[in-house]
Each structure stands twice: as C-alpha cells, then as structure tokens.
Write a structure and sequence with these properties.
Helices cover 53% and strands 5% of the residues. The chain has helices at 8-24, 43-56, 66-76, 85-106, 116-121, 142-155, 159-170, 189-193, 196-207, 213-223, 230-246, 248-251, 280-287, and strands spanning 2-3, 32-35, 59-62, 111-112, 134-135.
Amino acid sequence: MLGISGGLDSTLALLVTARAFDLLGIPRNQILAVTMPCFGTTDRTYRNACLLTKKLGATLKEVDIKEAVTVHFKDIGQEMDCHDVTYENSQARERTQVIMDLANKVNGMVVGTGDMSELALGWATYNGDHMSMYGVNASVPKTLVRHLVHYYAETCGEDALREVLLDVLDTPVSPELLPPKDGQIAQKTEDLVGPYELHDFFLFYILRYGYHPAKIYRLAKLAFDGVYDKETILKWLKVFYRRFFSQQFKRSCVPDGPKVGSVALSPRGDLRMPSDACSRLWLEELEAIHD
C-alpha cells in the first residue's frame, strides 16, 4: 500500500516497491497505489500518478478526499477560505487515515514515501505523511531521489514509462495542499524552505563530519560559487539549523526504514538527539559571520 501523488518521492517509493515485488516473485498487481486528490491536486500530477501506476503494473485506487475534509472542517470549525496550517495538515492526515484503513482491510503494509531531506527540515505533517509502516526513502536525500528516478527513466527501456518519469522530474516539488493558480501548482516547496541541493549539502557535513556552522558556510561558498551568492547561502543555512532543531520531535518517532547511504536520521541509529535541543549556539555562530 502506498499513496501515489505524481511527485518525486512517491514515484521512487513505487519504483522501489515494484523492484522488491519482482525480487520476491510477487505479482505487481498486489501493490495497491492510492491516489487521493483534494483541493491542491493539479491535473498534471493526478495524470502522472495514474499513468505511472498503470505502466508499472500496480493496482490503482482513487479516493477523492474533498468531501471528507470538508466535513472535517465543519466539525472543527475551520473556514474553507482560511488556508492556514490546519487547512493543509487536515488533508495530509485524512490521506494517512484513508491509506492506513485500506491497509487494514486488505491486510497490507503502508509504504512511506517521505525522504531524508524532508525529515531533516521537518517538512512533513506530524501523524500525516510523516507516518507509515516502513519508510523506504527515509535515508535518501531529495537530490538523490531525483537522481534515482532519472536513472530509472533512462534505463527502463520503456518509452511510455520514461516519458511519465521525465514529466515527474520536471514537475515543481510541492505538497499540493493549497488550491492551484490557473491550474498550475501554487505551493512550491523550495520557495518556502530553500533549495534542496543546499540543504542536502548542509545535512551531509553536519551529520557525517560534525562540522561547525562557520565551516559549513565556507565550504558551501566554495562548492556553490557562481550558483548562489553568500547572502543566499547564509540565509538558508540559518533556516536549516532552525528547522533541524525545532523539528526533532517528528524524527523521534519515525517508522522503520533502511539506511541507504552513509548517514541517517533515525533515532534508533545515527541520530541520538533530544526533541528539546536548542539551536541557539549554532545560530549565534552564524549571526557572528559578516563575510
């Protein structure tokens, strides 16, 4: 069981699940991919979710959650035109309820789709897309997710599948929880939390080598010279530290998942970090930087 959105993470999760079924000799039609359109879903991502599932031979199920979420808003007194965090998270949690309950019906296991970069930044709805039975992408950073999907597209040998995967790669990263503008995605993740290539760079040197903020800043200036100016790098590095510390509570209770690379964020493995850790010392070091 997995939720399929037409985005990068759920695409990789479905590809991984299909590969696992092939290795185990289980028919792919026993994979149940569920698309759950709501207020922010665009025609492009919906179409790609459906096409990808069919091209891979999995079983597609559609559960439109607009009515359920609307009733929930009425129950809790949430105005439909108030597009705040409650508006967004209610959709994510409804999707999780649907897929968990469907898993109960068919004695299935929910495969999580969230990646390592999202876990680092806390860019997930607590007890929403944050939760599953097993998170296959849990230690795969977003930049590697993109590379793996592109690699599969170029090596799968199926033109129709390659076309869908390339369109997924070309789609802006978005949770699609806000209504589209003129049919296009209105909520672009990297506009809100920063470029993933920067955050993945920061995360690697923080976790793998334990470098101090000032050193990571110097390395990033060298690595991204001509791509980002120093003000931009410093801005997003501060955002990273603030979010990394404040969102540990989500990582303290993540589902099981594999350690794919050299670092991971599981509290049962690489990251032993209290949820009440404070970012003050790290941010003070960054505030003292004037170069």
